[in-house]
Each structure stands twice: as structure tokens, then as C-alpha cells.
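INFO batch 0412 | record 1 of 1 | parsing
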Amino acid sequence: MATDPSAAPEEDRRLHRALGTVSLTAMTLSSVIGSGWLFAAYNAAKVAGPAALLSWVITGVATLLVSLVFIDLAFRWPVTGGNVRWPQLASGPMVGAVVGWAVFLQAVYAGPSEATALMQYAGRWIPGLVEHETLTVPGRIFAVAVLGLFFFVNMFGVRLVARVNNVVTAIKIAVPALTVVLLLASGFDTTNYEVGGGFAPYGLSAALTAVVGSGLVYSFTGINAAAVLSGEAADARRTVPRATLIALGFSFALYLGLQLAMLFTLPTGMLGSGWHGINLNSPLAELASLVGMVWLSWLLLADAVFSPAGSMLVSAGVKGRYSYGAAQNGILPRFFASVHAGSGIPRRALLLNLSAGAVIILAFGSWKSIASSLSFYYGLSYAAVSIAVSVLYATAPDRGWLGRWSQPVAFSSFVLSGLILYWSTWTKVRVAIPLLLVGYLIYLWRARRSGHRGGMWMICLLLALTGLSYLGSFGGVGFLPAPVDSILVALACGLGWWFGLRSGIVWRRDADSTTDRPNPNSQLERTR
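INFO prediction complete | emitting C-alpha cells
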């Protein structure tokens, strides 16, 4: 079994290192500001009421910690598809297999989420696409065709996509920002606070559930785009930190503004049945109509098609790098760890994502169901890269961007990522974790001739989270009341981080003394 995270290292050298700060910032913003801004604020208000503001703060803090982790890893080892490859480098093939599988699931779910969002808003113009917030059969077929178009464009090189995206992103960020300003100026009515039942009408647990279940985590999922593309950056050590932090600051301010607009410009008469009772198919466009700005409603309907389309343009390429990284890890066949010589694009990985994405659209057809499933897998990969930072700092402390803050940031990110997994509710956990264990079975098949079994800490942690989720108050049987259940999950994650760190240090020290395993220091020099 190959333990090198680069199953085909010669393919990395075919990638074009041409992206600067402006292009990486634009690509990150375009990845982040997609369908999430159209639906997340509405879904969070419906689930948690004004406590949705707390949901955004929790999500923002978690995203900041994760962003710092990705920046540090891109600084240490700039490589395309690193969100898959860094965990294997730091923790060994078992962790690499499980994370690689989770990231592959992210890759194939992301495009369908944007395509379904686009169709749900387009349904206001084209009858027969949407019914009861779910795409009809014609709507799903149309969404697959649109998805295919954007994957096709990505076949022709990262420079072309970056140039087109710079223009697209300027439009994408202008419309949501204008929406926030105009909706808040139209009438900030605090009456909704009292009529809707106060700050947390459904309890603080609803605010925690909204973090994943309403698509808030999903709304930030493109924040690692610059780091994932670091192998194609002209100067990753400078450009990746700048691009990531600029994109994070702007997107957080935008989402918070949209949530305030949804909570306090909604006509009070719509709260007769509480926040759970509001029902909007095209939330922001309908809200604009309700407050008398019909022209803004039409602009939002147009941008609701344009914005997810812009995200699909970048997402198709970025998520292709996810699958490329999974193939480099060995979790997918080496056939997909190939870069087309002329374009510098991993075309086979893109075609794999397109095929799987078409199946997902046809099977689900709903933005919320796809986005909430996707958020769970992002939570796991965020936890794994946090361990990677901890291990690489412990074994090579002088090479990072975070410096002495590496361990506390990584620990906090890991624990918060675990809590996000738990807050997604038992309904998601009972489906997502067994599916994740498919990655472990793939590893066992690959490792049948190898004695390496490091990384069992991750399997044990996933099983512990499954048990706690079943017993807890977030969709479970309620044996563990809140906040006892969340405290136990945090403690379990703290132990998981410690065992993951110790296991990774052993793996790295063993790797450094064995010629057939990767040395991160030597690989870092080769990838610059």
C-alpha cells in the first residue's frame, strides 16, 4: 500500500501556478457567496427566530478558526487538493482514507446544491420546475444540464475561469450588499422581536441546530478555496492568507446583515403562527415584494440565478481538486489522479464529480436537504485538518503561519467542529456516520497487506459521537439533557484531539525514519 499522499506526484508538476491575491480572493468569495445567501437566513429565522443571530456568530467563530488552520497548512505545504492530502500526511493512511471519502462526498454534493438553488428561484419564471420547495422531474433534468455546462467550462484552464470569475464576483457581491442596505432602510421593525416570542422562542438548542441544519455552515464552505488551490498560486505564502481573510470578513458581515433584514423587515402580520409558520419559496425576493420594492424583487430573482451560477463556475473547478486530492490519497482509483497536459486541469476528476452530482440532483431535488447533508461532511474534514496542523507543528514548529498559536487554534477548531457535527441532530448523524465508515472499509481493503492501523482514534470518536447523538437532546432519545450532552461531546472531542495528536506524532516520526513514507519538509521544498 502506498502511504505517500501523492499517488502520482508527477501530475502536480503539470498544474499551472498562476493565481494571485485578486484572483484567489475573487474565487474564494465566489465559492462562499453562492446559494447560501439566498436561503440560509430564511431557514435560520424559521428554525430559531432572532436566536439565528447567535447561530451566525457561532458559525463565524468556527469558520475563522478553520480558516486559520487552512492558511497555516497552505503556508507549510502548498499543494492542490490539500484538504484531502494534509490529513494523510500528518496522521497516516487510515485518517486519510476516511477524510478523503468525506471530502469526496463534499465534492459531489456541492455542484448539485448550487444547481438546485438556481432552479428553485428560476421556478418563479419558468412554471413546472418547482413544487413544494422541491424540484420536479423536468426541474431536476434542467439542473443536471446546467451543472454539465459549468463543468464543461472548467475543462479549459484555471486562468480562463479566474478571469471570468473576477467579473462575476463583482456583480455577485454588489447585489447582496445592496439588498441588505435597502431592506434594512425600508423599515427596521423591532416589533417582530416581541411578537415572535423573544430572542429564543424555541430555545437555544434551536440556534445550535440551525448552525448545520439551516445551511449556515454550508454558507461558508468555500472559504478554503484559496488553500485548496494553493498548488496553483503564484506565491501561496502571501496570497492564500490575504485572500482567505478578506473573503471571510466580507462574507460574515454580509450574512449577518441578511439575517437582520430577514428578522426585522418581515411584515409582523406573517408571525401569527410564530417563526415556524413563515412560508416563502423565494425568501428574499418575496420579502422585497412584501415591503414594496418590486424592482428589487426582480433583481433578486435574476441574481438568484446568476449567483449560484457564478458559484458553480468556481465550485466545479475547486471541487474537482477535492476529488483529485482523494485520488492522490488513493481513496479513489489512480485513474482520477491525472492532470490534462495542455490545460493543467484534472479533467477526469471533474467528470467523476459531474456524473455523481447528476445522480444526487435526480435523487434529492431540494436545496435544504442537499446543503444540510453537505455541511456534516465539511465538519469532519475541518476537524481532520485541525489535527494535521497540530501534528505538523509538533514535528516541525518553525514552518507555520500561526506559530505558537497553532495548537490552541487547532484544538479549538477541532472541538467546535465536533460540536457542529453533534448539533446537526441524530437524523443526520445516523445516516452520515455509517456512510463515512465506507471510507474506513475502503482503507481496510487497501491495507490488507499492511500492518499499519494508526488512526483508530478517529473511528472511536465517530462511534462516540454516534452514541452521544442517539442519547442526547438534538433529535435523540433525550436521555442526556442540554447542556450536559454538548459538554460531554466537547470533552469527547478534546480527548479525540489529544489521541489524534499523539497518534499523528508517532506516524510522522516513523515516516521520517522510513524511506518509503513522505517527509513533509522535503515535499514542501519540491512543491514550491
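INFO post-check: The radius of gyration is 22 Å.
INFO record closed
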